[in-house]
Design brief:
By secondary structure, the protein is α+β, with helices and mostly antiparallel strands. It has a single domain (about 15-205), classed as Sandwich (Jelly Rolls), CATH 2.60.120.620. Helix content is about 25%, strand content about 30%. The protein has four helices and ten strands. The strands form two sheets. It has a six-stranded antiparallel beta sheet. α1 crosses α2. It starts with 14 loop residues before the first strand and ends with a strand.
Length: about 210
C-alpha cells in the first residue's frame, strides 16, 4: 500500500526591510544631531552620569511627544501599512500607533544583548548612520534548534539557527516584538546610530 504524507513548514517569522528614500539627507542630519544631543542631556539628567549610558549605548526618553520626529513617525506608519498589506491584512480597520522611540549609539566595541520588545505588536529600527558591515541578528525561536544545536541549517527546510540582517543608512526594519534579537559589536571606529521604536496595532473602535 502506498503511503500518503505531506511535510509542511510551520511558524514562519516575517521580517520587513526597506530603504527610506523619502527621508531627505537634511532630515537624516537632524536625527544625527538629536542623537548626540540626547547623549549630553542624559548625562545631565541622571546622577550615574554619561559613562553608564555610553557603555549601555541606550539614550533616551521615550520621545513620544517629540514633534521633531513627526516626519519619521509618518514614514514608519506608511511602512507598517505596506507590511500589513503584504500579509493580507486590511490596515483601514486598524489603529496604528508609533509608541515608544529611543536613540541608540554604538561606539567601537559596543553591542546589545539578546532581548525582545514586550507588550507591542511590532518592533522596529531605523538606521540613521552606520559603518560598513552593520547588522541586526535574529535568533530562531523554534525549540528544536536548541535541542539539536548541531543541525545543519542547509538541510532544515531553509531554517537558520541565527539570521544576520545587513543594514545600511536609511534602512528600516519591522518585525514581531516577541522575536529575540541582538546587536553584534561595532568593529568600526565610526559610531553606529539608530532609533528603535515600538508600534501598536489594534482594531479601530466601533463607530
Amino acid at each position: 500500500m502506498e503511503l500518503q504524507c505531506i511535510c509542511k513548514q510551520l511558524f514562519g517569522i516575517n521580517l520587513y526591510s526597506a530603504i527610506c528614500k523619502n527621508i531627505t539627507d537634511e532630515e537624516n542630519g537632524l536625527l544625527v544631531n538629536m542623537c548626540y544631543e540626547l547623549v549630553e542631556q542624559v548625562a545631565k539628567d541622571f546622577p550615574i552620569g554619561e559613562e553608564f549610558y555610553t557603555k549601555t549605548t541606550y539614550f533616551g526618553h521615550t520621545l513620544k511627544d517629540e514633534r521633531r520626529l513627526d516626519f519619521l513617525r509618518d514614514q514608519i506608519t506608511t511602512h507598517v501599512k505596506i507590511y500589513l498589506e503584504a500579509m493580507n491584512v486590511d490596515f483601514n480597520v486598524l489603529d496604528i500607533e508609533v509608541d515608544r522611540m529611543w536613540f541608540n549609539i554604538n561606539r567601537k566595541g559596543e553591542f546589545h544583548l539578546p532581548h525582545v520588545h514586550r507588550n507591542t505588536t511590532f518592533a522596529g529600527v531605523y538606521y540613521i548612520d552606520v559603518p560598513d558591515d552593520s547588522s541586526l541578528m535574529f535568533m530562531n525561536p523554534i525549540p528544536r534548534f536548541v535541542s539539536f544545536p548541531k543541525m545543519n541549517p542547509s538541510t532544515s527546510n531553509g531554517q537558520e539557527i541565527d539570521h544576520i540582517e545587513r543594514v545600511t543608512a536609511k534602512t528600516l526594519l519591522l518585525f514581531d516584538g516577541w522575536v529575540i534579537h541582538c546587536v553584534p559589536p561595532n568593529r568600526s571606529t565610526k559610531d553606529r546610530l539608530c532609533i528603535a521604536f515600538n508600534v501598536n496595532v489594534n482594531p479601530k473602535p466601533a463607530s
